[in-house]
Amino acid sequence: MVVGLCFLVGWGVYKQGLYGTVYVQAQTIKAQNNTLLPIYTELKPNATDEEKAKGFISWQRTLGVWLAAAITLAVFSSLFRDNMFYKLAESLMVGVSAGYWFVVAFWSSLVPLVFAKLLPDLAQATVLPGLQIPPGSWQIFGYTAPDLSALFPLLLGAMLLARLIPSFSWLARWPLALIVGTMAGLRLVLIIESDFVEQIRSTILPLIVMVPNSAEAGAPLKIDWLLSLRNTSIIACVISSLSYFIFSIEHRGAFGRLSRVGVFVLMITFGASFAYTVMGRITLLTMRLEFLFKDWLQFDWLL
């Protein structure tokens, strides 16, 4: 594997200079204040030499391509056996994701919902210049009065950090219980609406569908046999699937045959769902292979 990778890199350097080289072209646009701002358009990997001559190499983007390729190969190395490169890529992925979502939560929750409400003037002057302070807000010594309702979530968040102190760790149970209870209540309503009520609503269908014979007003109705067959099939599949889970009646005779049909319906449904999941995973794999062969290796026969 290492020898093959070295061969590919050496061949690419010999044939085209360097793998993963990203060229950009500089353009200028006029901003609202009539100032010219430069923007950089990335060239495609199969750009001609004339197009590349008009631009220049973006070393930042080239480094990004190489870093992404190295991490991708490190993840793929787990197919051979567990190794330090895979563990490094795994730890890097977890750490970067945790840091990214921490920054997102800080700027999307803590700053606008807590800091901007407790100290609106300071937030407007420092981190949120576009913050709109409602006219007529209360003033205290010439400054906008804070919204004290933001102290409640700030206090609950501080209580969560009490878990780091063993003698005060019991304080973290209160906000945690509030979070779990609130999210459980919200999710319960959503699950009942989407997985129960909506499923029943989607099953209440007419067995015989009548549609207008033409687009004219008052046109006579006719039977749409295709929609009627579709609705009948849906209702039959639902009834047969539900009959399999009725254990108070012995599965014999006509009821047994009906539940047997329900088993096949469930198998087809689970198989389609599993195939859809596998197809999504294969799509992710092909996207990474496309990145390696097109953006990094820049094989001409793939471009």
TrEMBL record:
Domain of life, per lineage: Bacteria
Keyword vocabulary terms for this entry: Membrane, Transmembrane, Transmembrane helix
Transmembrane residue ranges: 62-80, 100-119, 140-162, 174-192, 229-249, 261-279
Transmembrane as UniProt keyword: yes
Protein name: Uncharacterized protein
Protein species of origin: Planctopirus hydrillae
